[in-house]
What we know:
The complex is a heterodimer.
Chain A: E1 3-7, E2 13-17, H1 24-31, E3 50-53, H2 66-72, E4 83-85, E5 99-101
Parallel strand pairs in A: 1-5
Antiparallel strand pairs in A: 1-2, 3-4, 3-5
Chain B: E1 6-10, H1 14-25, E2 31-35, H2 51-55, H3 67-72, E3 76-78, E4 83-87, E5 92-95, E6 100-102, E7 105-108, E8 112-114, E9 127-129, H4 133-149, E10 152-156, H5 160-171, E11 175-179, H6 192-204, E12 208-210, E13 215-221, E14 224-230, E15 235-237, E16 240-243, E17 247-249, H7 252-256, E18 265-267, E19 278-280, E20 285-288, E21 294-295, H8 300-314, E22 326-331, E23 334-340, E24 347-353, E25 358-365, E26 368-375, H9 378-390, H10 396-400, H11 407-412
Parallel strand pairs in B: 1-2, 1-7, 2-3, 7-19, 9-16, 10-11, 10-16, 11-12, 18-20
Antiparallel strand pairs in B: 4-5, 5-6, 8-17, 13-14, 14-15, 20-21, 22-23, 23-26, 24-25, 25-26
Helix pairs in contact in B: 1-8
Amino acid sequence: MPRITYLEPDGRPVTLDLKPGQSLMRAAMDAGLEGIEAQCGGNCACATCHCYVQPEWLDKLKPPSDDEQFMLTNVAAERRPNSRLSCQLIAEDALDGLTVRFPDRQS
Amino acid sequence: MDSHSRIVIVGGGQAGIQIAESLRQEGFTGALTLLGDEPHPPYQRPPLSKKWLAEGGAVGALSLRGPAAIERLKITLRPDTRVRAIERVRNVVELSDGTALPYDRLGIATGSLPRTLPVPGASLSGVFSLRGIADSLAIGQAIRLCAEEKRCVVVVGGGFIGLEVAAAARKLGAQVTVLEGLPRLMSRVTAPVVSETFARLHRAHGVQLMFGAQVAEIVGREGRVWAVRTADGQEYPAGVVVVGIGVDPDDLLARSAGLLCERGVVVDDCSRTSDSAIVAAGDCTARRLPNGELVRLESVQNAIEQGKSGAAALMGRERPFTNAPWFWSDQYDIKLQMVGLSRGYDQVVTRGDLAKPAYSAFYYRAGRLLAVDSMNRVPDHMQSKRLLDHGVWPTPEQAADPQFELSSLLKVAPAATPGGAATAGGA
């Protein structure tokens, strides 16, 4: 079971056990994390589930689709090279130990 | 508000859970009760007419906040709970079982109700409208049965819900006819060019579209729907009828309680109602704009932003929601994203490839950008959102020129001094 650590905007860590196939957004919403909004519910249509991926994990993730790339160009918080939309990050065993950080604002 | 205070929220959907969650984020430590009239914890409604309808899936996949979140936020969630009345003199919410729930502050998030067809046969078995999980499940089941029996699904209404249901029904293999009373699809919200794109799309997927079709009667046999008869005498055989002719705000409780309502609970941009102890958010509201006009929005964004504003207002803070409204729809392989309100436009220009389709329609009034509809043009949508929030826009000529970089307007715009209707920029 991939174990993912989320850092809330204030730095507070929350570690969750995800089911393989579950999106990082879904698990964060179910746990009621504060740094995420996910207004569109995971359709890659709103860019309010923005997170920063620990840089050393970046190349272990499936690269962003064109749509995600475009959505990322207009996230509410600062876009960084390690910005991703958590609705597009799907948990798998290879991601066990991943840490992502939520930005200070989503909308 | 202190730890002895009690806040009750009527309505357990997107707006209701948002008020509750934001109250905790705003530092509310008192008792927080969320009343929902469905058996489910708060869930997302948009997929009910889209992916979830076509593909099915677990109810849990729709959940907005899981049980762990509800518990952590110390929200007392009471599903299956109907409210009979809001009594503002005694400060209680009267439940349908007769118990009275006292409150110090109240949130109203009762949502909207689908309009029903005012014609004979509208209550026959096999005639559906779509509001909740139970409706989506029943419609999905009925459509699958239609597909097996080679009977037709008739959708009444060529708006978002109707067209999304039509697309889902095609995916499930059923024959589909859409009856639209007006001369084109989604005519209330989009320009003819966009309507035409969607008409082409649905026809290409085998949907029969009938325009100017006024439903006169739903014909039944043995208590079940059999056909839909239109005013011109045409009969459309139907194994199932899905009615998607819009919604009305569910403001009955608020109206009965004497709150100011005008086709929705009237709120200001901080979600405050005419009673200082009560806020309202989401589909049930009508927001008063600075120019006095009332705007009704039926969207997730509106539920979330008004919910946040309402929570802040209950805690005595102002957090106005003034950003440009946005909406989305998925039909087949088209992602339609809309930002702004196009009502009253006098000019439309398009940007991109209409045939594909991958283009955006820019709506102007007197040279000012009102709204942008984007079809498979995600960058246009995201940039237009920011443009509208900052009160800057391309000229129609610039918008129509695919070489023109929309983002260049944002770089030169003084982002700290947003203008126009937008005051809470998205940068």
